[in-house]
Amino acid sequence: MASSREAAEAEFRRFDTDGDGLLTAGEIRQANEALGAHGASESEIEAFIKSADNDGDGTIGLEEFVGLVGHGRHEKA
């Protein structure tokens, strides 16, 4: 069974469609659209980006992503 970090890294690579090592808002929205009715709302996406973007550059790097989703903090209560 994969660790939570490994699972988060795999998800990051899947979402990082241009392979630049950064997730943009557009890439996150594109991944969310693929979920259809099970996806997050626009306000939830914005909150996710804001909470994960520790350095304020408007993108989410691998470590930022792993830090947020690798520990299950993105899950709804």
Structure description:
Mean pLDDT is 85; it is low at 73-77. The protein is globular. A two-stranded antiparallel sheet has the order 1-2. The chain is 53% helix and 5% strand. The chain has 77 residues and is mainly alpha-helical. The protein has helices at residues 4-15, 25-34, 42-52, 62-69, and strands spanning 22-23, 60-61. It has one domain: EF-hand (Recoverin, domain 1). It has 4 helices and 2 strands. Residues 3-38, 40-75 form the EF-hand domain. This is EF-hand domain-containing protein. It comes from Nonomuraea marmarensis. Keywords: Calcium, Repeat. InterPro entries: Centrin_CML-like (IPR050145), EF-hand-dom_pair (IPR011992), EF_Hand_1_Ca_BS (IPR018247), EF_hand_dom (IPR002048).
Reconstruct the topology from this structure.
Layout: H1 4-15, E1 22-23, H2 25-34, H3 42-52, E2 60-61, H4 62-69
Antiparallel strand pairs: 1-2
Helix pairs in contact: 1-4, 2-3
Structure summary:
With 77 residues, this protein is mainly α. It is built from 4 helices and 2 strands, in the order H-E-H-H-E-H. Residues 3-38, 40-75 form the EF-hand domain.
Termini separation (Å)? 24 Å
Question: What class would the helix/strand composition place it in?
Answer: mainly alpha
Query: Would you give the CATH topology?
Result: Recoverin, domain 1
CATH level 4 superfamily: EF-hand
* Quaternary organisation of the protein chains: single chain
Instruction: Pick out the low-confidence regions.
Output: 73-77
> How much β-strand is present in the residues?
5-15%
Spatial strand order of the main sheet:
1-2
| Overall average pLDDT | 85
Q: SSE string, helix = H, strand = E?
A: HEHHEH
Domain count: the total is: 1
Q: Quick one: biggest sheet? A: 2 strands, antiparallel
CATH architecture: Orthogonal Bundle
Number of separate strands:
2
> How many individual helices?
4
The CATH class: Mainly Alpha
